Amino acid sequence: MKRILLIITLCLVALTGCTSSMNASTVKFGDDLVFVKSGDTYIIDLENSTELVKSKREEVLQTLVDEETLGDVVGLTTTTANIFYQMGIMPVGAPESPSLNMEIASQQYALEETGAIDKSRVLNVGSALAPNVEAIIELNPQLALYSSAMPKADYVANLEAGGVNVSSIGQSDYIDMFVLLDVVNELTNFENSQSTELMNSMVESLKSTLEIIENADAEEKTVAILLVTEGSINVNNDATVLGQVSKALGMKNVFADSENAELNKEQLLTLNPDYIIYYSHGMGTEAVSNFEAELTSDTSIYRELDAVKNGQAFQVASEDFVFSSSVDFNIIEVIKFLAEKFYA
Amino acid sequence: MIKIENLTINYEDQCVLDNVSTTFPKGQITTIIGPNGCGKSTLIKAIAGLFDNGKSQIKIDGKPRSEYQRKEFSRKVSFLMQFSAAPIGMTVRELVTFGRQPYKQKFKNFTTEDYKVINWAMRKTSTDKFEDKLVSQLSGGEKQRVFLALALAQKTEVIILDEPTNHLDIKYQHELLQLIQELNLEEKITIICVLHDVNQAYRYSDKVVVMKSGKIIASGTPEQCLTKDIMHQVYDVNCMIEKIGNHHNVCVI
Amino acid sequence: MRNKQVIAYLVVITLLIITSLVAITVGGSTIGATEIIDLLTNSEDVSNTSKIIIFEIRIPRIIGAITVGATLAVSGTLIKAVMKNPLADTGLLGIQSGASLCAMIVILIAPQFMPMLPLFAFGGGISAYLMLSVLAYKDGIQPLRLVLAGVAVNSLFGAFIGIITIYNSEELQNALTWLNGSLASITVTDAKILVIYGTIALIIAMFTIPKCNLLALDDMTIINLGENLTRTRMILASVSVLLSAISVSIVGVIGFVGLIIPHIARMIIGTNHKYMMPFSMILGSLFVLLADTMQVIVFSPVEMPVGIIISLIGAPFFLYLLRKEKI
Prior knowledge:
The structure holds three protein chains of three kinds. By secondary structure, chain A is an alpha/beta fold.
């Protein structure tokens, strides 16, 4: 089985290698990702993409195995269940959460109610933090996935002891999303229209983003990315989601090599970035409005910052997306939003 | 004069003082004796006001204990309870100075009058010789004299002492009791004292109150109270009263 | 005051001034002594950013450290006097936990009351103290029972804090920083609150000095002197709780300052609170400012909560005291 997969992969690599002369249908985004059009669908151009992309892809491929497995997946994290649904793959199990996709929720059933496993519907596995381990073992899916942005929880060992194959799925940066789509497209022989269309639309969106960047002046701009919570502000370095997006968009993160620790305000003042972008997770709206009030106040210590004076300090938020710690396909909206903010 | 009428005190469901009535005459040394647990300590603690109940049955100069303000009472009666722990790092003078606390006006310093009294109290008790020493470094006898100086500095009419000779060597026991007697004679201070030693009570008191099981068995002059019969009744021992030199002594046979 | 005491005072005051001067020249940016000298000689040459860094970040932080140290040390001095116990400390006895629980609830539920945070924290601290009194008083206070009651009160409030943190797990990161006691996010407003409340409470504390000395006597002697022991204790404990509540509500729980600083002050100055309490206050300021400045020098630009540094220095020293002295 594995050998066959390997051969397929090698064939694909060879195939993409042949067509790798950068033609008009090639899209390069950031330092890592290169897409190429193969037939009607964009695929990742492994020849021209970096080792990072290759290893990520290899990992996802090994995790998802084949089409049969794809149809029998439990999403242990809400966002994981959501992204599978968006790719046209209904999970067989998903947690109970207000942020779970409505369509999945409507298919959900609780084992206590029905008393029997029904793989044509979606099992309610309970809280994402402490799922109903016994029910999942009884469901016996081929694969249970949790977001790589979450730490490995204690219950995973119990699930594995019950014979469930548990794995984390990349949701830590934007590359992960494209890699996942690419693998799913391949495993479904490009016959899953939802995932191929999603890939195409996302790459098209990247293309238009790149156009915006190209039309802007070449000067490199600096940015500071802040995570705002009640009473404390933390910086985001280059390894964070927004750090990577900003980098791919040609920005220089002033805290690129810092720890993701509490903001040293003095440092921010002396680094004086061109843009300050901030976000909050969960119920941080109060924290954000406090921070905004502080930014705009006349007596604020931030008043001399260029970003504040030029109105280039803003929250990463819009009606189109909710930014959370686990990346989902909304990341394309975040990329578009930031590109427009940075280069408009 | 302190007068007690029908005082009953219950402590943790036990009757510690059972309908006690007695008087402590002005200018005299009155000693309370009795076996352990007879209620003698409770009686003086009640006078000192350490119990909430029974305060109206105790009258000091005709005024019930309950009607006295804290400061007012501490200018009238001072008491020295057993096992007064030596405060850490405090000198003799510093400790005796606290005796003027009841006279101190809020947010004001001590007056020269206060310092005069402090010096006098230390001189009287011969504690002025080591006034800069730490109280915790003194011997048991010296410590008791320092606390007596503190009581003296309060300039009260009455001083109540709970077994002041406890844990002292016999020499210091008599030294202390002689000092108390001296203060009584020279300064006309009324002394109420709980003593363990019957002979010391005989020798130094004007009046003796004998207690057992929360009741007063006898009260009056030492000669009236410390008889063979009463000794037998109270302590359950046979004894003789012998006169040795000028003093009567109770000898257990 | 004896010569030795005068020298001790001069030494700590000098050290405090020196540390403040060092603290003003170090931080997350390169702004140092040259900019400060420029600022003093010819302020037009200095950029606005430098001015903001010096006047609105570093100076509030120094003032914060000094006030926090002073309030915690005096609070510790008072609670030790009330409890007659060198082990007594508002941090150890759970009073700070009570205060931080209330402060936390206000921050999460009613952020509009933030300027009155010290008062709410005071309410929490007082309830912890009352619980402690009920648990620990029985025929006087036994040191062991007091410490055990403190452990109980501490873990009880700790549990409540835990529940709140779980329910607001999104803010967990920040709550932890706050619980460790951090001076990093002190703003000009915070510094103002600290100074106003702190000064008032410290002045009140200085008026209690005679009562603190009085409480060194045994209970019977105190009653003999016509003192209302219960009331005196309650007043002193309230002032102590107020002092730590002020600090807790702005910078979070900082242990060991109240525990070891009064102890050291007593070893140097003696037991008379008239000299010891102000000394303890200055020594506390010096200790916290020194710890925070060291933290900046060593870890900057990473902000290490000063509470962690203090525990790092304080805990071994406390263990040393435990071994050396009969506590």
